[in-house]
Specification:
alpha/beta; Rossmann fold; 5-stranded parallel β-sheet; 5 strands; globular
Length: about 160
């Protein structure tokens, strides 16, 4: 069983059926995958949906779907903040604070960070396993990549399983 943490960029790709969405869907369909979302992702998701013109009720439904039904939400605590600080120091390029917190959540929870955000690409693989869904062949740690059969068609097709471990 592997644990994954979805970044905002991966959730948006999935929700809007954008490039890389099939990789996220494959994770959601994998019964052996434990899927997490960091609390800061929900804030970023709400902001992104607001910028795209989504109404309040629609945003609430999306946050509920990804924040409770499809994934388990993990909080930011002191360990996450200290990990985020260390991660920012470990990269040669700029890592925005919110992205560092999200990556810190993945690190503390032993999760592979699933994203399509170039800011995460400079994090050394030996520090944090990441998977840029725009490059499915670069799956972390040589692990087998979830089978991607098609780009997702709709939110209603998602599994609603929760973390069991």
């Amino acid at each position: 069983m592997r644990t994954y943490l979805l970044d905002t960029s991966a959730i948006l790709a999935h929700f809007f059926s954008e490039k890389g969405s099939a990789g996220v869907q494959a994770l959601l369909d994998d019964p052996a995958a434990v899927i997490l979302v960091a609390a800061p992702v929900l804030l970023e998701l709400d902001s992104s949906l607001t910028r795209r013109g989504s109404g309040e009720a629609s945003r609430y439904n999306v946050l509920n779907e990804y924040g409770t039904r499809l994934t388990e939400t993990v909080s930011v605590d002191k360990a996450v903040v200290l990990s985020a600080v260390a991660l920012r120091k470990s990269v040669p390029e700029r890592l925005p604070a919110m992205d560092a917190l999200i990556a810190g959540c993945a690190l503390v929870h032993g999760a592979v960070l699933v994203h399509r955000d170039h800011h995460y690409d400079s994090i050394p693989r030996e520090v944090l396993g990441t998977w840029n869904i725009l490059r499915p062949g670069e799956y972390p740690d040589g692990a087998s990549h979830p089978t991607v059969v098609r780009e997702k068609s709709s939110m209603r097709a998602h599994s609603t399983r929760r973390r069991t471990a």
